[in-house]
Amino acid sequence: MEKIKSIDELRRLKEQSQAFLKTRQKDVKVKIYISVDKEENTNASRDVLLAVLDELKERNFSDFQIIEKAPMGSGIKEPFMALERDDLVVYYSNITPNMAREIIASHAIKGQIVSDWASKRSNL
């Protein structure tokens, strides 16, 4: 670990730690479920995950939790992503990294469901 050289560095470290702890404590606004199929679409799911992480980082959005989920089956095409926000879970199936970025920007950040791509909804 590097030595802290200034008060500003210490403050930044404190802010990063608080953001991390908030996520760990599950005191989050948005839960993002991403399919992880060990046998199929591994690269596609990984690309979606990387796009989600990149978009969240780019927008400096830390009020989220990412959870790996097994394939859903029954009409949900892989790779899929589900967003839990405001007591509603919306499933997006057969998504690409670009679609994932738009879903993060619209649904996770602004709370606007991307209806064209939503395949299923359920209340908590």
Structural notes for this entry:
The protein has helices spanning 7-24, 42-58, 97-109; strands at 30-35, 64-69, 81-85, 88-92, 118-123. With 124 residues, the protein is of the alpha+beta class. A five-stranded mixed sheet has the order 2-1-3-4-5, covered by helices on one side. The radius of gyration is 16 Å and the shape is elongated.
Features:
124 residues; alpha+beta; five-stranded mixed sheet; 5 strands
Task: Please describe the topology of this protein.
Elements: H1 7-24, E1 30-35, H2 42-58, E2 64-69, E3 81-85, E4 88-92, H3 97-109, E5 118-123
Parallel strand pairs: 1-2
Antiparallel strand pairs: 1-3, 3-4, 4-5
Helix pairs in contact: 2-3
- In spatial order, strands of the major sheet run 2-1-3-4-5
Query: How can the largest sheet be summarized?
Result: 5 strands, mixed
* Quaternary assembly: single chain
Termini separation comes to 42 Å
> What is the global morphology?
elongated
What Rg is obtained from the alpha carbons, in whole angstroms? 16 Å
Class based on secondary structure composition and strand pairing: alpha+beta
H/E order of the elements?
A: HEHEEEHE
* Strand-residue proportion: 15-25%
Q: Which residue ranges are poorly predicted, with pLDDT under 50 across at least 5 consecutive positions?
A: none
| β-strand number | 5
- Can you count the helices? 3
Brief characterization of the structure:
Helices cover 39% and strands 23% of the residues. The protein has helices spanning 7-24, 42-58, 97-109, and strands at residues 30-35, 64-69, 81-85, 88-92, 118-123. It starts with 6 loop residues before the first helix and ends with a strand.
